[in-house]
Amino acid sequence: MHEVEAKFRIADVESLVVALKAHGVELAAPAVQDDQAFAPVAWRYGDSKIGVPFARLRTEGGRHLFTVKVPGDNELSCEEHETEVADRDQMHAAVVAMGFAPTVRIVKTRRRGRWGEVDLCVDDVAGLGVFLELERLAPPGTSGLAAQAELVGMVTALGVEAARVEETYDSLLRAVG
Protein backbone atom coordinates (compact mmCIF):
# COMPACT_ATOMS: atom_id res chain seq x y z
CA MET A 1 0.00 0.00 0.00
CA HIS A 2 1.07 3.58 -0.64
CA GLU A 3 0.34 5.83 2.33
CA VAL A 4 0.48 9.60 1.90
CA GLU A 5 0.61 11.94 4.90
CA ALA A 6 0.60 15.65 5.55
CA LYS A 7 1.68 16.84 8.99
CA PHE A 8 1.13 20.18 10.76
CA ARG A 9 2.34 21.69 14.02
CA ILE A 10 -0.67 23.00 15.95
CA ALA A 11 -0.50 26.04 18.21
CA ASP A 12 -4.04 25.86 19.67
CA VAL A 13 -5.39 22.32 20.03
CA GLU A 14 -8.77 23.48 21.36
CA SER A 15 -9.40 25.58 18.23
CA LEU A 16 -8.42 22.58 16.13
CA VAL A 17 -10.87 20.28 17.92
CA VAL A 18 -13.68 22.83 17.47
CA ALA A 19 -12.86 23.24 13.74
CA LEU A 20 -12.73 19.47 13.21
CA LYS A 21 -16.08 19.03 14.95
CA ALA A 22 -17.57 21.75 12.71
CA HIS A 23 -16.47 19.60 9.73
CA GLY A 24 -18.11 16.49 11.20
CA VAL A 25 -14.94 14.93 12.62
CA GLU A 26 -15.27 13.26 16.00
CA LEU A 27 -12.03 12.31 17.72
CA ALA A 28 -11.68 9.01 19.56
CA ALA A 29 -10.45 8.76 23.12
CA PRO A 30 -6.70 9.33 23.56
CA ALA A 31 -4.38 6.31 23.25
CA VAL A 32 -0.68 6.16 24.10
CA GLN A 33 1.66 4.87 21.39
CA ASP A 34 5.22 3.83 22.18
CA ASP A 35 7.26 3.61 18.97
CA GLN A 36 10.83 2.47 18.44
CA ALA A 37 12.16 3.65 15.08
CA PHE A 38 14.86 1.73 13.20
CA ALA A 39 17.07 2.61 10.22
CA PRO A 40 19.52 0.55 8.19
CA VAL A 41 22.86 0.34 10.02
CA ALA A 42 24.70 2.28 7.28
CA TRP A 43 22.10 5.10 7.12
CA ARG A 44 22.67 8.34 9.08
CA TYR A 45 20.44 11.34 9.84
CA GLY A 46 21.11 13.87 7.12
CA ASP A 47 21.22 11.14 4.44
CA SER A 48 18.31 10.95 2.02
CA LYS A 49 15.40 8.77 3.12
CA ILE A 50 14.03 8.30 -0.42
CA GLY A 51 14.00 4.62 -1.38
CA VAL A 52 15.44 3.52 1.99
CA PRO A 53 13.44 1.05 4.13
CA PHE A 54 12.76 2.13 7.73
CA ALA A 55 11.19 -0.04 10.40
CA ARG A 56 9.06 0.71 13.45
CA LEU A 57 7.84 -1.28 16.43
CA ARG A 58 4.73 0.23 18.01
CA THR A 59 2.95 -0.76 21.21
CA GLU A 60 -0.55 0.54 21.83
CA GLY A 61 -3.01 -0.93 24.30
CA GLY A 62 -1.02 -4.15 24.66
CA ARG A 63 -0.82 -4.73 20.87
CA HIS A 64 2.51 -4.68 19.04
CA LEU A 65 2.74 -3.65 15.38
CA PHE A 66 5.75 -4.02 13.11
CA THR A 67 5.87 -1.62 10.17
CA VAL A 68 8.28 -1.04 7.30
CA LYS A 69 8.03 2.18 5.30
CA VAL A 70 9.94 3.07 2.13
CA PRO A 71 9.70 6.79 1.27
CA GLY A 72 8.95 7.61 -2.37
CA ASP A 73 8.20 11.21 -3.36
CA ASN A 74 9.29 12.45 0.09
CA GLU A 75 9.49 11.31 3.73
CA LEU A 76 5.71 11.36 4.15
CA SER A 77 4.76 9.50 0.97
CA CYS A 78 5.67 5.85 1.55
CA GLU A 79 5.13 2.29 0.49
CA GLU A 80 4.04 0.68 3.76
CA HIS A 81 3.78 -2.86 5.10
CA GLU A 82 2.45 -3.58 8.59
CA THR A 83 1.56 -6.59 10.70
CA GLU A 84 0.82 -7.41 14.31
CA VAL A 85 3.51 -9.30 16.24
CA ALA A 86 3.16 -11.31 19.44
CA ASP A 87 6.45 -10.47 21.14
CA ARG A 88 7.94 -6.96 20.89
CA ASP A 89 11.31 -7.96 22.39
CA GLN A 90 11.78 -10.85 19.96
CA MET A 91 10.74 -8.69 17.01
CA HIS A 92 13.19 -6.00 18.16
CA ALA A 93 15.99 -8.60 18.16
CA ALA A 94 14.90 -9.84 14.70
CA VAL A 95 14.91 -6.30 13.24
CA VAL A 96 18.43 -5.74 14.57
CA ALA A 97 19.52 -9.12 13.12
CA MET A 98 18.15 -7.98 9.72
CA GLY A 99 20.61 -5.07 9.67
CA PHE A 100 18.63 -2.26 11.28
CA ALA A 101 19.70 -0.13 14.24
CA PRO A 102 17.38 1.53 16.76
CA THR A 103 17.32 5.30 16.25
CA VAL A 104 14.71 7.25 18.23
CA ARG A 105 11.97 6.33 20.69
CA ILE A 106 8.74 8.24 20.02
CA VAL A 107 6.02 8.37 22.67
CA LYS A 108 2.80 10.15 21.85
CA THR A 109 -0.82 10.41 22.88
CA ARG A 110 -2.96 10.02 19.77
CA ARG A 111 -6.60 10.83 19.10
CA ARG A 112 -7.91 9.41 15.81
CA GLY A 113 -10.72 10.59 13.56
CA ARG A 114 -11.97 10.24 10.02
CA TRP A 115 -12.80 13.06 7.59
CA GLY A 116 -14.42 11.55 4.51
CA GLU A 117 -11.81 9.23 2.99
CA VAL A 118 -9.00 10.65 5.13
CA ASP A 119 -7.74 9.30 8.44
CA LEU A 120 -6.51 11.96 10.79
CA CYS A 121 -4.65 11.98 14.07
CA VAL A 122 -4.13 14.66 16.67
CA ASP A 123 -0.82 13.73 18.28
CA ASP A 124 0.73 15.12 21.45
CA VAL A 125 4.33 14.00 20.97
CA ALA A 126 6.57 13.95 24.05
CA GLY A 127 9.34 16.51 23.54
CA LEU A 128 7.75 18.06 20.42
CA GLY A 129 4.21 19.28 21.07
CA VAL A 130 0.90 18.85 19.26
CA PHE A 131 0.53 17.88 15.60
CA LEU A 132 -2.27 17.13 13.17
CA GLU A 133 -1.59 14.32 10.72
CA LEU A 134 -3.81 13.56 7.74
CA GLU A 135 -3.29 10.22 6.00
CA ARG A 136 -4.78 8.56 2.98
CA LEU A 137 -4.04 5.66 0.73
CA ALA A 138 -3.07 6.63 -2.78
CA PRO A 139 -3.93 4.40 -5.72
CA PRO A 140 -0.97 2.90 -7.61
CA GLY A 141 0.56 5.40 -10.00
CA THR A 142 -0.82 8.41 -8.11
CA SER A 143 1.55 11.21 -7.23
CA GLY A 144 2.17 11.43 -3.51
CA LEU A 145 2.82 15.14 -3.95
CA ALA A 146 -0.62 15.70 -5.53
CA ALA A 147 -2.29 13.72 -2.74
CA GLN A 148 -0.40 15.78 -0.14
CA ALA A 149 -1.58 19.00 -1.82
CA GLU A 150 -5.19 17.81 -1.39
CA LEU A 151 -4.53 17.13 2.31
CA VAL A 152 -2.99 20.58 2.74
CA GLY A 153 -6.14 22.07 1.19
CA MET A 154 -8.28 20.27 3.73
CA VAL A 155 -6.26 21.71 6.61
CA THR A 156 -6.42 25.19 5.08
CA ALA A 157 -10.24 24.83 4.99
CA LEU A 158 -10.24 24.33 8.77
CA GLY A 159 -9.16 27.93 9.28
CA VAL A 160 -6.84 27.19 12.21
CA GLU A 161 -3.21 28.11 12.73
CA ALA A 162 -1.28 25.09 11.41
CA ALA A 163 2.36 25.09 10.28
CA ARG A 164 3.18 22.38 7.76
CA VAL A 165 6.01 20.04 8.74
CA GLU A 166 7.66 17.86 6.11
CA GLU A 167 9.74 15.64 8.41
CA THR A 168 8.82 12.51 10.33
CA TYR A 169 8.61 12.50 14.12
CA ASP A 170 11.93 10.65 14.42
CA SER A 171 13.73 13.35 12.40
CA LEU A 172 12.06 16.11 14.42
CA LEU A 173 13.01 14.47 17.72
CA ARG A 174 16.57 13.90 16.54
CA ALA A 175 16.85 17.59 15.62
CA VAL A 176 15.83 18.77 19.10
CA GLY A 177 18.01 16.44 20.75
TrEMBL record:
InterPro entries: Adenylyl_cyclase_CyaB, CYTH-like_dom_sf, CYTH_domain. Pfam families: CYTH (PF01928). PROSITE patterns: CYTH (PS51707). Residues 1-175 form the CYTH domain. It comes from the Bacteria. PANTHER family: CYTH DOMAIN-CONTAINING PROTEIN, SI:CH211-156B7.4. This is CYTH domain-containing protein. It comes from Natronosporangium hydrolyticum.
